[in-house]
Amino acid sequence: MLVVFVRTLILYAVVIVVMRLMGKRQIGELQPFELVVAILISDLAAVPMQNTGIPLVNGIIPIFTLLIAQLAMSLISLKSVKARGIICGKPSILIEKGKINESVLRREMYTINDLLEQLRSKDIYNIADVEYAILETNGQLSVLPKAQKRPLTLQDMNIPAQYEGLPLVLINDGYVSKKDLDKAGVDENWLKSELAKHGISDARDVLFASLDSSGNLFLQRKER
Hints:
8 helices, alpha+beta, DUF421, CRO Repressor, 4-stranded antiparallel sheet, 16% strand, single chain, YetF C-terminal domain-containing protein, 3 domains, transmembrane
């Protein structure tokens, strides 16, 4: 039992390391060859994990071999546009200038119901509102609504917009980020005074606190 426990921990660590080295894509964003590698890695790890009669190295070596193959394929895709098209494929235009491409739908084995479902996930409920719909190589659908159906922007109304950067997380679950305090140009004394305004004497009582680019502080206290 202890042997199985240790082997499982080792293989778990190996798979985590390998998946981290492969990159940070989500499952829904994987290219076909990346998804194949992920499935094969899980199968290779499961065999020696369940069968203690198989040497552990027999599972680890193939996993790292797949990692090398995957990194090589990714590097080739980065260096060559032609190879990228062969390995990853090319996007398919399902709707072009408001017209559904039936031949492309058949080639991609994509039904009208599939298309409508994906459009609804993009908050588009009328196919007549779509100018372009492109099926990306990772299976995601990119949609460009018709001009008259797009949301109104400040630019459309000739209203100048102020710069809006990412908020800085000053406190995360009671932990104060000194790095983000420095980025915000404030110190711990300033933070303590701001907390005091909300009746908080200790940062450890704060669940989350962030400072946006306009200088507004968002703060939430931990539940007691």
